[in-house]
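fyi for ur records
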Amino acid sequence: MPKSIIAEGKTTNEAILNGLKQLNVSKEKVEIKVLENKDKRSFFSILAPRSVQVELTLKEGVTENKSNKNEKENRGDVYKDRKMPTEADIAQAKKNVENFLKDFSKNFQDFIYEVKYEKEFLNIAINGQDSTKLIGYRGDVLNALQVILNSIANRNCDVRVRVILDIGDYKQKREIALEELADKISKTVSRTGKQVTLEPMMAYERKIIHNRLQQSKYVKTYSIGEEPYRKVVIAKK
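which gave:
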């Protein structure tokens, strides 16, 4: 039976391109069917970006190219080939961040921070009662602050130093929640055979899902869409 997948995008063309990337084939090698979206949108989801779903089926005699570029993310090889910073780069990045946080913390009464380099990242931990104001809805403010800190850290650095920010152990709690979600969805997919597309997530959150299910005998995962609306799909093997 020819292989079929369902892909999503903000437009029909984007959905088709995402599907072609998953299969790693050209457009003329698939049959395309645009699917109707029958999901009812709740009051709380009216501001969420709409998506278009298409079904791509390989034509008879055509096989999927296994060298899918999404496999890098699924295997966790995203940073495999990047150049490592020197001790001088790390020291400069740490100094830049600490100088910024020293001034930034003056805006809060209870604000404690720690900066240390480990596991190839400059890890910043912020705690204190006032720090929770910097998390936001599902970490959106935290993620925005992390982008700013990455920019500040790499001033006058020859090689980029990657910054990871955590506030009040939010990311640890988020990781546990995502792993539980992955387990729950994988059971549903295994039982029903229907793939599930999760909400858009940050790259590190998608990686948690991929890593959690990469050893599963029953389901597989891959990502679709473009940032910041990139999503994880959990499908039956």
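The beta strands are 4-9, 30-35, 52-58, 112-118, 121-127, 163-167, 196-197, 219-224, 231-236. thats all i got for now
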